[in-house]
Amino acid sequence: MVEIDKTRFDRLQEEMERENVDALICRLPENVLYLSDYWAQQGLSLAILPKGEEPILLAPEVEEPYAEKSWADTRIFGWGLVGEDDLFSSWERLLSDIRDEQSLQNSTVGVETSFELVAPPYNVMEPVGVGKPTLNLIEKVFSGGEVVDATGLLEKARSVKTDYEQDKLRVANEVAALGLARFEEEVLPGKTEAQVAAAVEQEIRSKGAGYKGANFARASAEIRTGPGSFETLLFVPSRSERITEGDIVLLELPTVVDGYWSDLTRVTVAGRPTKKQKEIHNLVSKAQQAAIDRMSPGTSWGEVDKAARETIEKGGYGDNFPHITGHGLGLRYHENIPMLYPGADDELESGMVTSVEPGIYIEGWGGIRMEDNILVTEDGPELLSTYDRTL
Amino acid sequence: MVEIDKTRFDRLQEEMERENVDALICRLPENVLYLSDYWAQQGLSLAILPKGEEPILLAPEVEEPYAEKSWADTRIFGWGLVGEDDLFSSWERLLSDIRDEQSLQNSTVGVETSFELVAPPYNVMEPVGVGKPTLNLIEKVFSGGEVVDATGLLEKARSVKTDYEQDKLRVANEVAALGLARFEEEVLPGKTEAQVAAAVEQEIRSKGAGYKGANFARASAEIRTGPGSFETLLFVPSRSERITEGDIVLLELPTVVDGYWSDLTRVTVAGRPTKKQKEIHNLVSKAQQAAIDRMSPGTSWGEVDKAARETIEKGGYGDNFPHITGHGLGLRYHENIPMLYPGADDELESGMVTSVEPGIYIEGWGGIRMEDNILVTEDGPELLSTYDRTL
Predict the structure, then answer these.
(1) Residue B2 clears pLDDT 80, i.e. is over it
(2) Triad B169, B173, B177: Cα angle to 5°
(3) How high is the pLDDT of residue B1?
(4) What is the domain range of residue B80?
């Protein structure tokens, strides 16, 4: 059990105070982790944070060896075997106990009503959303009070990362770098996109477990080769298409280590890069650095986007950078705060983390993007991802 | 574009008729696939099925190359680039058009209110749930009618697999078998659980893309070695623990190919199996076969469970099989229909698919489970997974 992250709770209590929320009840793995420091293996946990108190975690017995290491008051219930109660009965019993212990009978309870895009639990193959069953249960147990949407509150609190969280994000980026190194080895003519993607994922999963005390690591690599890399301006899947000599090969790599995310992109060339490939890579690199250099507390999100966009415009490729410059990340690989897009006038704060990922995409030729994760600090921007950025 | 699966739609129309639902509107990738034959790369698609009509699919432009191959009337919207509408504005516009075209102004619309455990889209790292934003939007567009929960209707319709779906499940099981073969090669003293898991996943992802016309395959392997395999009676993660000579090594393997799932378990021994390991493996194998032999249309779910359970009891391990015998699967790796548990009196129907997965778990010694996927037919049970079941 690690020491509780007091900074995180001070921030949360402040937000709860401002929004008049007496307790938070979270089911989504990303928010359970935020409140309890436990990354749920499956979507069977609940985390409760009464204002001014320490968090309480409900976890199924099978997850006890890991859940009990969280900093929450952890309460275990039987689940999944013949004769055991169903999930909602166990939750109702334990939630009712907590309501009575904490005198929350007439309280305002904040829930995850508006999260739809979510981070998976460790078991990425069976994620959970928050639908009517969970909301109905909470409304039943807290029928004397009010149930309100805490989505905005949670997103805002999460947007500033504490020292503890920053360390976790550094580790996630180090593990991701193992995948970037493997990517460079694997890019050879004749290999399929899916083969290269699978090898990168293998590297991260096999070497990430146990890395600097991490329990679990997974990644989901997507590769595009040749002119098809043009399409990577948005999310596209790895195919059975083969790499040919001279191809641009682009890797998009979200990695999760114990629930903390990294989101990186690198491009390499299968063979010797052409002059044009090098020129465009240099321009993207310059645009990325220009954006990073602007990342200080108080700078508007739009100004950071502008720095990247103007660099690409000046380089003559203004029509070829159609997406935003970056997005928040931390407990999910896309978070809404901050969001680096043209004209955005919200301001960066110390502790915020974003991707910075300008790109140039030319139909029939290909796409080159470079993506790193940056921490905003009073002393200037810090690259959480330190892997080599040259072609 | 493949020919539309008329059997599926006849069945759906029948269920909609029975439940007085005029149209279904689905966002979850598993149900979008069910209605449109398109496995969403991200959770940005909607599928609409008006009663008596063909389905309509809304998909973002970046997914068009795949979405347009669906059997739905596919309508594309811009998403994700600077200056494009946000998702909900595009959906509102297109849904309103459909409401008017199909005269659904005063209709009863069925939605996914109670799905919480969900299947991920192709991008397993960013799944979606159905929360207030989607439900509010649908209620707004269909404010002249009624919005009802179609979760039960969808689960019931999905529980019987058509010939088209059965073929997809056969392919998913063939791809999964590539992973089972790799597992046997990888189990060597000194390797970590995470290393073996990562290699199995790599095999499936790299060889699954393009296999018999499949676009995409992914798996998530979990490995437990030695006495720790006892804990696999429920879901447990792969660790950095190393295999030692003589260990039981258990692999739990969900695999998804173009949105259709296989769920398999195999056990091997690192070295020569002991007499006890062989005896228990034989007993589990007998229990599995006893259950499979009972799987005919009209047999109750409980009777199938009983066949496995009695075999294990007679073998002297009645206290060591604490979980259910099997569960439905198809568009998710756990579906609720059928569910093979003690005393269940619902009946199997031709076309249903379940896992059959008895196991024996002994604390301090280990666990042995064998899991295959069985199709119920009028001519008897068919093993969709045909990989070798010997130790």
Answers:
(1) no
(2) 170
(3) 55
(4) 6-158
Residues 138-167 of B with CB under 8 A from A: 149
Contact, B71 vs B55, CB < 8 A? yes
At A280, which CATH number? 3.90.230.10
Model pLDDT, residue A2: 67
B17 in a structural domain: yes
B365 touches chain A (CB under 8 A): no
Task: Say yes or no to pLDDT of B10 above 60.
Answer: yes
Determine, yes or no, domain membership for A364.
yes
- Whether residue B31 lies within 8 A of chain A, CB to CB, comes out as no
pLDDT at A1: 55
Strand-by-strand arrangement of the A73-77 sheet: A73-77, A56-60, A46-50, A23-26, A108-111, A146-149
Residues B152 and B250 in one domain: no
Shared domain check, B170 and B130 = no
A290 pLDDT exceeds 60? yes
Considering only CB atoms, B125 lies closest to which of A130, A233, A333, namely: A333
Looking at chain B, list the stretches that DSSP marks H as alpha helix, in order from N- to C-terminal side: 6-18, 29-36, 64-67, 87-101, 132-141, 151-158, 163-186, 193-208, 275-293, 301-314
Is this complex scored with an ipTM above 0.85? yes
Pairwise CA distance, residues B153 & B157, whole Å: 6
Q: Rounded to an integer, what distance in angstroms lies between the CA atom of residue A92 and that of residue A95? A: 5
Cis-peptide into A338, omega within 30 deg: yes
Average pLDDT of every residue of chain A: 97
Q: How many Å separate Cα A181 from the centre of its chain?
A: 21
Q: Which amino acid is at A244?
A: T
Count of all residues that appear for chain A in the document: 391
Domain boundary among B125, B158, B191: B158
Residue among A126, A258, A331 with most chain B CBs within 10 A, to mutate? A126
End-to-end CA distance of chain B: 42
In the prediction, which pLDDT does B3 show?
Answer: 81
DSSP A179-219: HHHHHHHH--TT-BHHHHHHHHHHHHHHHHTTGGG---EEE
Residue B360 sits in the same domain as residue B373: yes
Q: Are B112 and A134 inside 8 Å of each other by CB?
A: no
Nearest CA among A177, A142, A322, A347 for reference residue A263: A177
The nearest CA of chain A is from the CA of B202 a distance in Å of: 5
Domain contains B96: yes
Q: Which of A235, A262, A257 is nearest to A180 (CA)?
A: A262
pLDDT confidence band for B338 (50 / 70 / 90): very high
pLDDT band, residue B187 (cuts 50/70/90): very high
Going by their DSSP bridges, the two strands B366-369 and B359-362 should be labelled as antiparallel
Contact A129 B132 (CB under 8 A): no
Q: Which of A116, A231, A324 sits opposite B129 (nearest CB)?
A: A116
Nearest residue to B256 (alpha-carbon basis) of B168, B161, B369, B185: B168
Cβ distance of A192 and B209 shorter than 8 Å: yes
Residue B233 contacts A, CB cutoff 8 Å? yes
Whether the ω angle into residue A381 lies within 30 degrees of 0, i.e. cis, is no
pLDDT at B215: 94
Q: What one-character DSSP code corresponds to residue A10?
A: H
- Answer for the pair B371, B354: CB distance below 8 angstroms, yes or no: no
CB A201 within 8 A of CB B197: no
Number of domains chain A is built from: 2
Percent of chain A surpassing pLDDT 70: 99
B 59-78 near A (Cβ less than 8 A) = 60, 62
pTM of the model: 0.97
Q: Which residue has the tokens 């990989």?
A: B387
Chain B residues in contact with A81 (beta carbon < 8 A): 233-234, 322-323
Q: How far apart are CA A11 and CA A349, in angstroms?
A: 14
